[in-house]
Amino acid sequence: QVHLMESGGGLVQPGGSLRLSCAASGIMFSNYVMSWYRQGPGQERELVARIGSGGGTGGGIKEYADAVKGRFTISRDNPRNTVFLQMNSVKPEDTAVYYCNAAWNRNYWGQGTTVTVSS
Q: For residue 107, is pLDDT > 90?
């Protein structure tokens, strides 16, 4: 059974940092492209960052949404079946539910973790 478990969400002040984690089980993790998506209040789900499956233990090519470039960093630890999203210099508009996605021959989603940026 496939399971993606996000963690690390919470309340953070503008300008602060947060690190999200997504632990995967039940899949050949290193084969999957891993992504973080988010869905803000009243908004559609959007891609935040993606990391390819290549590149040894640390993954392959990375891509980011324009809104988070230079502030967020995606990384993966293949031996630990985990993908991370380091969020720095957060803004109120980063407030959203953040979802982990695994894509290869099938597409899987986690339940989401809530990030609230507020003073």
A: yes
- The answer to whether the beta carbons of residues 63 and 49 sit under 8 Å apart is yes
Q: Give the model's pLDDT for residue 59.
A: 67
- Is 110 in contact with 98 (CB distance < 8 Å)? no
Q: Where does 45-95 show beta strands of DSSP type E?
A: 46-51, 62-64, 72-77, 82-87
Beta-bridged to residue 100, according to DSSP, are 36
pLDDT by residue (tens digit) across 22-81?
999 999 999 999 999 999 999 999 999 999 987 666 668 999 999 999 999 999 999 999
Question: CA–CA separation, 116 vs 23, rounded Å?
Answer: 21
Report the distance separating Cα 61 and Cα 12, nearest Å. 29
Give the C-alpha separation, 72 to 5, whole Å.
Answer: 20
**What strand order describes the sheet that includes 3-7?**
3-7, 18-25, 82-87, 72-77
How high is the pLDDT of residue 56? 63
- Pull the structure tokens for residue 2: 């496939």
Counting every residue, how long is the chain?
A: 119
